[in-house]
Records
---
Amino acid sequence: MAVRVDTAAGTLTLGDFTAPCTIGRSGACAADAKSEGDGCTPRGNWPIKAVLFRPERSAPPHGLQLPWRWTLASDGWSDSTDDPAYNRPVRLPHGFSAESLHRGDMLYDIIVVLDHNMSPPVPGMGSAIFFHLWNEAKPLNKRTTEGCVAISREAMLEILPMLKLDLVMEIF
């Protein structure tokens, strides 16, 4: 079984659960065409690895089966193609470019880490491809990501207990 993301329909499905979702500002692309910063969501099957929660804004729901941890203000994710830690979690400040996991908006209040370009990471093939919350303050057609998959907080809290380590996110 997989969490299926239909990029054309803008839906995310797992069994009987279906929710609207959004993807990258540049649409979807073949995984081998993905490049750092292109705003494209890579098609393919990406294993679900873990969940990160921002403590003052979110909490693990009852029944969560995935490994999880709280994020800290010093948590980042390397997006520098020159960094030996490319597409890995890092502590901020970091000597290379890295995205903060504590954003001013709510997008990273809950982050499901996907194994896209992590085993091993290939510099330039895309970093920080997550499944996270969308920006509820924007109209649905403006809720694009930088290449991730995003859904509403309500839908995320409903699907989280259904996720297991043997699941993949199938983006097509």
---
Amino acid sequence: MKAEKKQKKSTKRDSSFGLIIYKSTVGDRIFNAVNIFLFAVFMIICVFPFYYLFINTISDNELVNRGMITFIPKGIHLSNYKALLNISDLGKSFIVTISRTILGTALMVAVSGFAGYIVTKQHMWKRKLWYRMIVITMYFNAGLIPWYLNMLMLGLTNSFWAYIIPGIVAPYNIILVKTYVESISQELEESALLDGATTMQVFTKIIWPLSKPILATIAIFGAVGNWNSFQDSLLLMNSNPGLYTLQHRLYIYLNQATSISSEIDAAMVDRIAAGMLSNRIIKYSISMVTVIPILCVYPFMQRYFVKGIMLGAVKG
């Protein structure tokens, strides 16, 4: 009875529209405040490492070497990034990584979108068999050594296509697209078929535009995965350093930061600043170079992310 009375006190009926307006209680306000505080702390924990790296790359190098830059940048300059332009092969690795990210993500989204749509068609020959064969690859794999031997036999070692071909078919993304397409009204497709549209026309004119949220979601997965990947470069490109990815270069540079300073042309920057490019500053600067591009792209895709995942998870 007491709980019912408290509930009645916390609600108020709007006579003009007949709506019940909920009035928050003290407990609700405390709960919201605690939630906001905890999420704010979590956000700071996630963001601060990137912020710390960035302010140390643009602050006075002498202060950075002394460990005096913690929260606020001092003596702001961009000479560290200019100096990195003279590190051998860094620009080439950047182009390789950008190319594999754009091409690999585009092909993966196109194939995942069409495959996810096709496996929803009841009249597809052996539909359940093909779909199960796609799903089973998520749970079983041969391992690293058989994977390398398979890539070797296919002639994909020391080849740019080793970055693209293995990632075109992504089982998890196909499942996401399939469940999303099943949530789209079937009447739209049926009316198009009655008007004489082909399966490909239905996909390109109706399904593809309506599936933008889930396609943007898997595009995020693909772009981040391609950008951050370095294991395939490490294992498959031993004889072709020109195809090293940016993350592979970062791995090498972080282990050889001492020798990198000798590759920097001091004529590009102030000689005093060049002399202060310590191992710490080089590591910070290269790390930021690899992180900034994907951080710039992600916010533009974020608005599709939650919508695509939630709608794609309605059905199993």
